[in-house]
Amino acid sequence: MNNSPFLAASVAPAEVAHFSDCADEWWSQRGIFGVLHDLIPLRLRYVMTQCDAFGVQKKDSKKSFEDLCILDMGCGGGLMTEALAQQGARITAVDASAKAIDVAQKHAQKSGLEIDYRVGTAEALAQEKKRFDVIVALEIVEHVADLDSFMRALSALLKPEGLLILSTLNRTTSSFLLGTVMAEYVLGWVPAGTHDWDKFVRPSELAALCEKNKMMPVDVTGLVYRPLWRRFELCQAKTKVNYFMTVRKEKKEIRKP
């Protein structure tokens, strides 16, 4: 019997199966994940800005993340993973879908990038005592079965004073109309049935989970779509649909002799 606190409680088999069914589409810019390709430069800019603000980013190097250990949790086919690797990161990328990881590995080989891809879970990786300077978990928290277990594992994986950068959907009327109905059934940005509105997470709820696990929220920034210009933008004041959240792990306590 395994009494570890890091059981794979966060894995939702139906969610894994859903993304496995469309894994071959990950690197098709005109396919069902096309909008995610459009988001990569903006996501990368947000991650770089937060790392710079908290002294994680390398300022004396041509590559912003050189020698940093970064985890891409819920990496899918590796879109964001490769963007981070191109900035010099020593990157581990994990997803519960074996098909997605297979697609990611093959594309990384074609791109000439060294990435430690793994089929697995946050809980399993935490058992290995791995620690990272930065963790990115983008559009994943709304797909896990047990968010408390997931966040506890991410905290265990993060070094003291390290950054966890999340993105997800807020649970509001606006997110139901725009993030689910419009995105899935009208615009076709993501496959129909990708999102369950009841699993969307309010910023206050996510912040509370982070604080419970010794991670302090330091930034919340909204992601908005400008239809007239057909582009996404960051806006701190608008978090009703999509948002990013950056949290910082507490310093390790020094015990006095």
3D structure, described in words:
The chain has 257 residues and is of the alpha/beta class. It has one domain: 3-Layer(aba) Sandwich (Rossmann fold). It contains 8 helices and 8 strands. α6 links the parallel β4 (132-138) and β5. α2 (34-53) crosses α3. It is globular and about 40 Å long. It starts with 12 loop residues before the first helix and ends in an 8-residue tail after the last strand. Mean pLDDT is 85; it is low at 1-7 and 253-257.
Percent of residues in β-strands: 15-25%
Q: What class would the helix/strand composition place it in?
A: alpha/beta
Question: Which strand order do you get reading across the main beta sheet?
Answer: 3-2-1-4-5-8-6-7
Biggest β-sheet strands, sense, barrel:
8 strands, mixed
* Mean pLDDT figure: 85
**Helix/strand order, N-terminal first:** HHEHEHEHEHEHHEEE
CATH first level: which class? Alpha Beta
Distance between the termini: 37 Å
Would you tell me which CATH topology applies?
A: Rossmann fold
For the record, the CATH architecture stands as 3-Layer(aba) Sandwich
Q: Give the tally of β-strands.
A: 8
How many domains?
Answer: 1
Q: Which key terms come to mind for this protein?
A:
257 residues, alpha/beta, 8 strands, globular
What is this structure, in a nutshell?
The protein has 257 residues and is an alpha/beta fold. Helices cover 35% and strands 23% of the residues.
